[in-house]
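Fold in tokens:
===
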Amino acid sequence: MTPYPYADEYPIRRSLAEAGERREDVLAMMADLASREDRAWESGQCSGTMYCGDHDHYDFLNQAFARFSHVNTLQRDLCPSATKFEAEIIAMTLDLLGAVYDASHTPAGLITSGGSASIAHAVLAYRELNAPRTARPNIIKPETAHPAFEKAGHLFGVSVRTAPVDPQTARVDLDWVRDHVDGDTIAIIGSACNYGYGTVDPIVELGEIALDRHVGLHVDGCLGGFILPFGRELGYDIAPFDLSVPGVTSMSADTHKYGYALKGSSVLCFADRSLRNSQYFFQPDWSGGKYCSPGMDGSRSGGLLAATWAAMVHLGRSGYRRYAQSIFEVATAMTAAVRAHPSLRVIGSPSFLFSFTSDDFDVYHVNDFLRTRGWRLNGQQYPNALHMAVTRPQTQPGVVERWRSDLADAVAYAQARAGTPAQSGAIYGGVDGGPTAETDDIIRFFMADMMDQQQAVPDAP
């Protein structure tokens, strides 16, 4: 990856030019870049990243966004539609995630700019709610939980205790969690599902610990929140994980992932509004007027609210369920292709996202080769592993068949390279920083292999 992409085609701007460029020229350049970059995922060979991958759907969302792209949601008196969109997004998400309305619970929510922001707001809410009883708050999270918890702990002065996970199931060690809750613990964490392995932590059992020890339980459903509920409806073996589970006090779910909204939106759900209200910020004596903010952001985009609302209302439960069925079916087929190779090992019991490693060779060799076939998987570490988050682009015809064929070739390549260093590695948010000069070596390997096969076949009479 170059720090100056497209430098050989378009100028690098290091200062604001005196004269602006024509709109037509600006848009032409952007159209060129977008078209080329879309090809990286349109084939269905890219893990995660593009959860919808439907240009017609994106066009629909862009139209909704355009109607309100200029709107600042702070100005609710000018644009009351923002209140409608936001309230209904939260209400629909609470309903999807099993919120319980009774005499002791008034569920509530908050829309944030993404999964990390939802996690940060949750940690802040628990800290503020528990401020009267502890000045040294801590949370307990599985090792597999998202690093955003550590980021939030760093920002808000909350100590993070990392619980080990069972290496066979990739689920959190319940006994460790139970033994490490103390008087300063404000919340424990579970994932549904975790980013690395696609496994769902034992949320029911974590809820029992939370109730017994009088602490909060946040379920990080940023990745799975808008697909796991439909997987359960379709009959897949997914244990209860949402706000309906006793002891769960908050849950995050990203609308910009399997909610098929535009990037920059997530919903943080609270089992009761008292927890949400604890993280509000007020400054009533400012000379600019009484200031209050439900979250860390001040100005927010009305366009994102409108587009998120439009996605949810347009798809409905049946639309989400239909897409979930295709995704789970493809994930099952792709996982089965991995299990067909004795030298590969699937980690834990995955859902729509699976991860695999090898005890025979460095699995990054598999990644090195797959990149030459156009695949973009996510590299992991401890152990070295690769994961594929199945999204709608993988449900296109032919993708599973390409996966089976290319994976078989990649395993053959990796077996021939056992004991040698691979080129790719594990970087979150990227697609591993794959091979460069290694590509030529891979091509030579398969050319030689093809020659050997041809020599082994007798000439036709």
About this structure: The mean pLDDT is 92.
